[in-house]
Write a structure and sequence with these properties.
By secondary structure, the chain is an alpha+beta fold. It has a domain at about 25-85. The protein has helices spanning about 5-10, 45-50, 115-125, 135-150, 170-180; strands at about 50-55, 65-75, 80-85. A hairpin with a 4-residue loop joins β2 (about 65-75) and β3. The N and C termini lie far apart (about 120 Å).
Length: about 180
């Protein structure tokens, strides 16, 4: 049957069925090779042989000097033969043991000390001066501005005239009269 035969055929037709009986398959006798006879595993003798692997590492700031780890490795097992001091957390320094048994240290008690009058006055002169004044720092600044403006010569004030309607030219006429007089 082709790829498009089913799509191009009329709807009522069915594909012809093969009436020939299927041939029974022969039973294949299965057999297994042992690991030595199998060629797909590679060289089995090489895998069984144990190899000595030597790793070297540079020292660190905590433990200077070259480090070395020697391991005997086979296909199914490995054994660590020698590891230098300082590798994988191995250190010759014994751990210090705290013998206090978790008993907390006594708390050092501190008490407030009385302040002399001179020391109190010195602290008042610091950055907190004028904080508790009524009105705060803003009121002090306004008073300073008022005193400075009273000492400065006064400038003539410009009076703003209220106009009746929008678009009137009366303010302009008044300005011309002021200029000509």
């Amino acid at each position: 049957m082709g790829l498009f035969d089913r799509l191009l055929a009329p709807r009522g037709s069915t594909p012809p069925a093969n009436n020939t009986p299927a041939k029974p398959k022969k039973e294949v006798e299965s057999f297994f090779l042992d690991a030595d006879a199998s060629s797909s595993m590679g060289n089995v003798d090489f895998m069984r042989r144990s190899n000595t692997i030597r790793h070297t590492f540079p020292g660190t700031a905590d433990s200077p000097g070259n480090k070395e780890m020697i391991a005997e490795v086979a296909s199914m097992e490995s054994k660590l033969e020698m590891m230098s001091e300082g590798l994988a957390g191995i250190s010759s320094q014994p751990e210090t043991v705290d013998l206090s048994g978790g008993i907390p240290k006594p708390v050092k008690k501190t008490f407030a000390q009385t302040m002399s009058a001179a020391e109190l006055e010195q602290r008042k002169k610091g950055s907190a001066f004028g904080v508790n004044v009524p009105g705060g720092p803003a009121a002090i600044k306004q008073e300073q501005e008022r005193s400075a403006s009273a000492q400065a010569p006064s400038q003539p004030q410009i009076s703003k005239q209220a106009s009746g309607k929008a678009g009137e030219i009366d303010p302009f006429k008044q300005m011309v009269r002021d200029l000509t007089s």
